[in-house]
Design goal:
With 125 residues, the protein is mainly α. The chain has 5 helices and no strands.
């Protein structure tokens, strides 16, 4: 799934808005990642930053007005440029890559949770 608009260096704004269905899909994904990031803020063994960055990307796709404040930080300018460049890759490659990265992130997160639970259980005995 490509980002719904391209990064424009000159204006630093979104040139067009995505369709309502696209905005709804990106908004739901953004809120899901935001929930995972909030969970990471509460649990010391859950990684919050990757989910916060994914939430920022998805929510700015749903609501382009959120993009302008994020572009004040160089990290997000670089991130949006990379995201826009990846839209030129073939769709099957982008989908495979996204699914593999998401699966890897979830395996790593669940592995970290399992390790912490084992340590906690050992401490309880």
């Amino acid at each position: 799934m490509a980002f719904p608009f391209r990064f424009d260096d000159a204006s630093r704004s979104a040139p067009s808005e995505p369709s309502m269905a696209g905005r709804l899909l990106w908004g739901c994904a953004g809120l899901f990642f935001l929930l995972l990031a909030a969970l990471g803020a509460l649990l010391p063994f859950w990684p919050a930053p990757p989910f916060a960055v994914l939430a920022a990307l998805a929510l700015t796709a749903a609501w382009p007005a959120l993009r302008t404040p994020l572009l004040r930080w160089p990290f997000f300018v670089t991130l949006f440029r990379r995201w826009d460049r990846s839209a030129e890759a073939p769709l099957p490659l982008r989908l495979r890559t996204a699914l593999l990265l998401a699966a890897d992130a979830m395996v790593q997160a669940f592995g970290a949770v399992a390790r912490q639970l084992r340590r906690w259980r050992r401490g309880q005995r």
